[in-house]
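Working notes for the structural subgroup meeting. M.R. asked for a predicted model of this chain before we commit to crystallization trials. I am recording the input and output together here so anyone reviewing the notebook later can reproduce the run.

Input as submitted:
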Amino acid sequence: MDDYRTINRAAWDERAPAHAASPDYARSSFLEDAAFLSGVVRFDVPLLGDIAGLRGVHLQCHIGTDTLSLARLGAKMTGLDFSGASLDEARGLAAATGAEIEFVQADVYDAVDLLGAGAFDLVYTGIGALCWLPDIDRWADVVAELLAPGGRLFLREGHPMLWALSEASEGPLAVEHPYFQTEAPLIEDDGGTYVQTDAEFERTTTHSWNHGVGEVMTALLARDLQITGFAEHDSVPWDALPGRMESLPTGEFRLADRPWRVAHSYTLQAAKPSAPPS
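Returned structure, recorded in token form:
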């Protein structure tokens, strides 16, 4: 099972420079405008609320554009990712913009050992992260342990129903992949990536898992976290089903044909009680 880390890390290491150079990650906008936020975090702001002064950690932060955006909203941020190449890009962006962000290279399951229990007021996990983890219960353990009493989790993720759909660009929408977490990963061989780039990649194999909404909620509730918010959305911040989606003025994408048929993404918030349950 541990081999999935090696396989996936190789793919992310190779793609990180291409992602940083792609207009989709808008690096130049971060450099030119000190108030610029990533599209993902701009979408989050109405539900995220005021995070000024919070100690935050962004799990699976990739090249750090969302981490930097959260720092620009006033949080004291730490970013964690298992890809050294991704963190090279994240550190470079932070340095170029004068942001004080600590970036730590580690597998998400090792976060507590490196960062400390109860160290954060905010745990943030962004879009397209959970699918790279084989065990949602272990992830929930990490979230619960990282949070200080009274702290909260903010998660926006691709909806497991969207992940379960076939990527075929023609014909009726079809459910092809598991909705629920499975022991065996979905193994894909794809030479592309989700951003605009002319780069060609050699590391084309990835291992991923889907996690049903109920599985995510149950895992958090089992660790005495309180679900404080849940919303489903009819858009995602990337072209998830090429040939079937339309771009929106917000920079998000949704099904061009009757988008109300399928939830595209969701936001889940949970809080750690200020005192242990009696």
